[in-house]
Hints:
The chain has helices spanning 29-35, 62-74, 91-101, 125-137, 225-232, 254-265, 287-295, 305-318, 322-329, and strands at residues 2-8, 15-17, 24-26, 44-50, 81-85, 102-103, 109-112, 139-140, 143-144, 149-153, 156-159, 164-165, 174-175, 183-185, 189-191, 205-206, 214-218, 239-244, 269-274, 298-299. It has 340 residues and is of the alpha/beta class. The protein has an 8-stranded mixed β-sheet, with helices on both faces. A 4-stranded parallel β-sheet has the order 17-18-19-20, with helices on both faces. Strands 2-3 form a two-stranded antiparallel sheet. It is globular, with a radius of gyration of 21 Å.
Amino acid sequence: xxxILIIYTGGTIGMVESEDQKTLVPFNLEHILSHVPELKKLxxxxxxxxxxxxxxxxxxxxxxxxxxxTIISSRYGDFDGFVILxxxxxxxxxxxxxxxxxxxxxxxxxxxxxQLPIGMIRTDARENLITAVQIASQQINDExxxxxVAVYFEDHLYRGNRVKKLSTEAFEAFFxxxxxxxxxxxxxxxxxxxxxxxxxxLPFRLIDGFDNRVVTLTLFPGISEALVKTILSNTQVRGLxxxxxxxxxxxxxxxxxxxxxxxxxxxxxxxxxxxCAMGQVEQGKYETSTGLLQAGVISGGDMTMEAxxxxxxxxxxxxxxxxxxxxxxxxxxxxxxxxx
Length: 340
């Protein structure tokens, strides 16, 4: 029998109506398990751990990622896999952050949540939880099938640092814009084995530390010089995610390129991520991205914004060397970035 640790952080999946039925309030994990008696039918040993104070995922901070990483690291030798129950709003950020922190991971860490609380009649929480536990317990020749951080939601298993939240209402709330799903759950759970991360030879260790001195700048027609200057002249900022048009294009105005060049020369790390839901940045493909390339802006390729911002925070937390950070940003370290 495999052993799985279920970690409850908070979120809709663990919410019930308050006594006045006007609000949703969290309750403990024991109640969640009592609402899903089917879990007892699985050939799995389950143990539960809950945050001392369950939180709405909109309140997630880097220290919560550290708490999750520490829980997994401290219990890594005791369990065959981990299932994290998490609110859906920032689930993609947490999944990405954990993928970078859990170096040498050779066990499944599956995040899931729900669109409706577990106590409601039409809830998607039960199926999501049951299947996430099943996936985490899957083994072949005593080796876990999944050996990475992944997200399970509504019949699909996704790479954790490849997902984005798509809908506030649909049960199929997430999608993976630039990478195939890892598995589909129907009558059977069908894994796409070639797309799973291969077994690592690295020993497992937790790498902690995030530097939140980062900012995002979304380009739009009419963006003012004063606004850009306010952001780029802030010497407290170490990293910038530049959300550009199309395949990584931006204004060719001299003031814009000049400001970027000076900020990058000062040590600011600037990453180019497209605003498009799908596709990738190709700096230099069009004239309007040539200036960004010449200024020293780094292409984020096909990373999601969530994967890019957590990766940048993670790398800046490891080193003061901006050159090393830039090199690592364009390196695929956990399957977050396609390489040609």
